[in-house]
């Protein structure tokens, strides 16, 4: 029953939302593994659920627009970091 509910819920969402969920779930795990709390876009492309450059960039932009993460350019690298929670920003 749970599998059918999960399958049907994916049909109701756009492919962009499904990709964003998959990437965000992966990013949460990766952010916890790193000392800096960030992941490079290259690392995400190599090891994450979205391997093609253009769809990955579009999905990262979608997550930024939805305020889940932020992108920071550092030299030649592009870092993906979690967006601070609202309560953390207020302090």
Structure notes:
This protein has about 90 residues and is α+β, with helices and mostly antiparallel strands. The protein has one domain (about 15-90): Orthogonal Bundle (Arc Repressor Mutant, subunit A), CATH 1.10.10.10. Helix content is about 60%, strand content about 15%. The protein contains five helices and three strands, in the order H-H-E-H-H-E-E-H. The chain has a three-stranded antiparallel β-sheet with strand order 1-3-2. A hairpin with a 2-residue loop joins strand 2 and strand 3. Helix 2 (about 15-35) crosses helix 4. The model is unreliable at about 85-90 (pLDDT under 50).
Which key phrases capture this entry?
Arc Repressor Mutant, subunit A; 3-stranded antiparallel beta sheet; 60% helix; 15% strand; globular
Topology:
Layout: H1 2-12, H2 15-33, E1 39-40, H3 41-47, H4 53-65, E2 69-74, E3 77-82, H5 86-90
Antiparallel strand pairs: 1-3, 2-3
Roughly how much helix do the residues carry, as a percent range?
Answer: 55-70%
Choose one word for the global shape.
globular
Give the percentage of residues in beta strands: 15-25%
Mean pLDDT, as a whole number? 86
Structure described in brief:
By secondary structure, this protein is α+β, with helices and mostly antiparallel strands. The chain has a single domain (14-90), classed as Winged helix-like DNA-binding domain superfamily/Winged helix DNA-binding domain (Arc Repressor Mutant, subunit A, Orthogonal Bundle). Helices cover 60% and strands 15% of the residues.
């Amino acid at each position: 029953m749970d599998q059918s509910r999960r399958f049907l819920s994916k049909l109701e969402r756009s492919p962009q939302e499904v990709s964003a969920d998959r990437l965000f779930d992966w990013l949460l795990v990766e952010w916890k593994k790193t000392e800096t709390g960030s992941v490079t876009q290259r690392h995400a492309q190599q090891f994450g659920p979205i391997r093609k450059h253009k769809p990955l960039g579009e999905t990262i932009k979608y997550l930024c627009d939805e305020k889940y993460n932020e992108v920071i350019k550092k030299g030649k690298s592009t870092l993906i970091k979690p967006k601070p929670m609202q309560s953390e920003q207020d302090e």
